[in-house]
Design brief:
heterodimer; A: mainly alpha; B: alpha/beta; Rossmann fold; 6-stranded mixed β-sheet; 4-stranded antiparallel β-sheet; globular
């Protein structure tokens, strides 16, 4: 061989690759969450801004520090902690004391993700793990809902936001409200089309990000079009909530009507941004539909018959727990499969 | 018969950028003879050929220089008037050294075309005699697999072929050899199709062509009007449409059983370039001595489709086509399934359909960082065999190779690369499959 021969590089096929990387997917989820976060800040003001910032910073810092302490490759730059941080904040009551949000962020990342090996290995949605923890540990502040569109919300935080750690949060009657779901659950108020409309547009009380169904749907569509989100999961989940709550509504008119069920509470946020978490949802095409329908059904059951007004979080966490089984039972039938009935495959 | 209007295809697969524009208009041009040719004795699937020449022996163009080493084997012919320099070891694309005949080409005298036999003779042959005659041409699948053509034409007892599937998909990006052959050698192609029909006793032949080659579809559909047994079917432009199992599914709606062959669903699949060469060689009783190769890629100054004498070193071909200084990777075949080579001394063999040269720029764009599997399921929705590459990849990392084979159909993977192409985490899934298959093979032979 001549001396001029250039240094050739050896790699194995395929030599072409689609130019979408995992960090780019995560970054795009962040982009899609920005309008949702912005609407939340518009509705709840300074408190929502501080809440989202605190939660995101807490998640990022935790990921960075834990990875550093464990002397492994630092993954804080892959944007997944940012996704968790923003999503987590959006599930919280807007007036939640910031220190609680910071604690929750640590829980999300450590208990929800890093203990299992980090991104890709976590069985449960990290943001929901954090929220479930706070729901149990700080039940009272986690069920205090601030009124949306309060005057002066951009110049003044909700008093409880700045509460000191372990201090009784100040009362904030002037700020407080109740979510439409809680109104229905605890005060038996009937729901009508006016409630549906205001829930759809987001002019109601609720968690920081579970307010405008419309904004969430638009942002979800952006991700689905870019093929960074599996549209079948929200389609299955929302469809199943509509159908099952429709059945219950027909049986008993005191149950909320299906449109109200669709637009209220954390369902939209959960269906579009939480249930679609790739790591914790099934990978098989059939499994994805089963997962969507199942989580939707569980949401309706918990909302109508559970002790709490909201069921989306537990429905998705239960769905996450069932994901390995769903995957195992729905392995694709291979091309040219033998006629003999395939054995049920065992998961890892 | 005319063309069908419905676009046929298989399920799953991917749509990589085609990159065919650089060479699709380039008519096939003959490459000058290099000073030396290297003819590996094992450039096909099956037993190596046995040399029948001695060093220093002079051979004429088209002379048989090695005979088939068995039924699943083919002879080799001298691509040029030359002298046998030696019989020794030569580098092959896999990186292994294998026995080869080295020829010193007689560049002084005119390279006469090989002698032709009378063309009427082949029409009188029985299918068995035809198969033997096909073997004598040294034909193998020119699409890349290099499986001896006559073996596919021999229908075993108890089996039958009802349809000859002619593969004109050329789904690999960058490559345009099949496309040019369909345009420039359609008569030879139809002769080849009729040979295949006669050898297999099939009733009809379907030429499947991807819709990104409308000129070829039109030209061949018109030519097919004269023979009611042959028709052209446009198939959707999608990778890997040209994989035989996918094409059979698209055209015949049949699935080759796992571990089986096309003949199990009464089909035989041949590449258009293979049949075009066969249609040219068999009636003349000549051997395979040259093939069309697409030389392309950002690292090539004069991309084109060259008629290359077999055994030509890649270096000579690239010198002729002009290799840029920035060239950094040379791939034999297409970008999806091709093999990157370590040395430009490696010769063009019967299975080489393209030479793709990539530069620093493309390599810099290739990601190196591997993220964990985020279970996005993209690979599952890309795999044309409906495997679960995500699970297979995880099992491979845990060295659960036996489980991969027994429960997750590892051996149905034909390494098309769809999974690795779509993987956002840049996981080398195809490589994981190869490792697993190699380890399983080794364990089986050890037993």
């Amino acid at each position: 061989m001549t001396q001029e021969t250039p240094q050739v590089e050896l790699r194995t096929s395929p030599h072409l690759q689609r130019p979408i990387r995992t960090d780019a997917i995560m970054r795009n989820v962040v982009y899609a969450l920005i309008p949702v976060a912005a609407f939340s800040i518009y509705a709840f003001g300074l408190s929502a801004l501080l809440l989202i910032a605190t939660s995101t910073a807490s998640c990022l810092l935790t990921e960075f520090l834990v990875r550093r302490l464990s002397k492994v490759e630092n993954t804080a730059g892959d944007w997944s902690a940012v996704v968790t941080g923003i999503l987590f904040a959006l599930t919280l009551p807007p007036g939640l004391p910031l220190w609680i949000a910071a604690v929750g962020g640590v829980i999300c990342i450590v208990l929800g993700k890093l203990l299992f090996g980090g991104l890709g290995y976590n069985p449960f949605n990290p943001a929901l793990v954090g929220r479930a923890f706070l729901q149990a540990a700080f039940t009272v502040p986690m069920t205090r809902w601030a009124a949306a569109f309060a005057p002066g919300r951009f110049v003044q935080a909700i008093p409880s936001t700045l509460a000191l750690p372990f201090m009784q949060a100040p009362e904030f009657d002037a700020w407080s409200g109740a979510t439409p779901l809680a109104m229905w659950k605890f005060q038996q108020t009937a729901t009508d089309m006016k409630d549906v409309m205001s829930a759809f547009m987001g002019t109601i009380e609720g968690s920081a990000g579970e307010t405008s169904a419309l904004v969430i749907l638009i942002c979800g569509a952006y991700l689905a079009v870019r093929k960074m989100m599996d549209w079948r999961i929200p389609a299955g989940m929302l469809g199943s909530v509509f159908v099952f709550s429709g059945v219950f509504y027909l049986i008993n008119n005191a149950n909320p009507n299906p449109l109200f069920m669709l637009c209220s509470g954390g369902l939209m946020l959960g269906a579009v941004f939480m249930a679609t978490d790739m790591v914790t949802s099934p990978t098989t095409p059939v499994g994805v539909w089963i997962f969507g329908v199942l989580t939707g059904f569980l949401t309706v059951l918990i909302r109508l018959y559970g002790a709490l007004p909201e069921g989306v979080m537990y429905a998705i966490l239960l769905g996450n727990a069932l994901t390995p089984i769903i995957n195992a039972l729905t392995q694709p039938k291979i091309y040219g499969a033998k006629k003999a009935k395939a054995k049920v495959e065992q998961t890892q | 018969m005319g063309t069908a209007t419905l676009k046929k295809t298989f399920s799953h697969g991917i749509h990589p950028p085609e990159h065919k524009a650089a060479t699709v208009e380039s008519a096939i041009t003959p490459l000058p003879f290099p000073p030396g040719l290297v003819i590996p004795l094992s450039q096909h699937t099956g037993a190596p050929a046995r040399p029948i020449v001695e060093p220093k022996q002079e051979v004429a163009r088209g002379d048989k220089i090695a005979e088939a080493g068995g039924f699943v084997s083919v002879p080799m012919h001298a691509p040029a008037k030359s002298t046998v320099a030696k019989i020794g070891l030569a580098l092959t694309p896999s990186g292994a050294m294998t026995p080869a005949i080295f020829l010193k080409v007689d560049l002084e005298s005119e390279q006469e075309p090989p002698p032709e036999a009378d063309s009427a003779a082949s029409n009188a042959l029985t299918p068995e005699e035809l198969v033997a005659a096909v073997q004598e041409t040294g034909m193998v699948g020119l699409g890349g697999a290099a499986f001896p053509t006559h073996v596919k034409m021999l229908v075993p007892k108890g089996k039958r072929v009802d349809t000859v599937v002619v593969n004109g998909c050329e789904c690999e990006p960058y490559l345009t050899t099949d496309h040019r052959v369909m345009l420039e050698a359609s008569e030879d192609l139809f002769t080849g199709v009729r040979i295949a029909l006669r050898a297999t006793q099939a009733g009809c032949a379907i030429i499947g062509i991807e819709t990104n080659k409308p000129d070829a579809i039109k030209a061949l559909a018109k030519a097919a009007e004269s023979d009611s047994r042959i028709r052209v079917a446009p198939v959707k432009t999608k990778y890997p449409q040209g994989a035989e199992k996918m094409l059979i599914k698209a055209l015949l709606k049949r699935e080759v059983p796992s571990g089986g062959l096309p003949i199990d669903v009464n089909a035989a699949v041949f590449n258009v370039a293979t049949l075009a060469q066969l249609g040219r060689l068999l009636p003349r009783k000549q051997g395979l001595i040259e093939r069309v190769v697409t030389v392309t890629g950002p690292g090539v100054e004069r991309p084109g489709n060259y008629l290359v004498p077999l055994g030509t070193p890649v270096q000579f071909l690239l010198d002729h086509a002009g290799m840029k200084d920035t060239a950094r990777q040379v791939i034999l075949g297409g970008p999806m399934m091709g093999v990157a080579i370590a040395s430009l001394e490696i010769p063009v063999t019967k299975g080489v359909s393209g030479i793709l040269v990539l530069t620093d720029k493309e390599l810099a764009q290739r990601p190196t960082k591997v993220y964990p599997c985020i279970r996005c399921g993209q690979c599952i929705q890309a795999c044309p065999m409906f495997l679960n590459p995500s699970r297979l990849g995880l099992l491979s990392r845990k060295e659960q190779y036996a489980v991969m084979e027994e429960r997750y159909h590892l051996n149905d993977c034909f390494e098309c690369g769809c999974c690795a192409y779509v993987c956002p985490s840049n996981i080398p899934l195809v490589q994981y499959m190869r490792i697993a298959k190699a380890v399983n093979r080794e364990r089986k032979t050890a037993k």
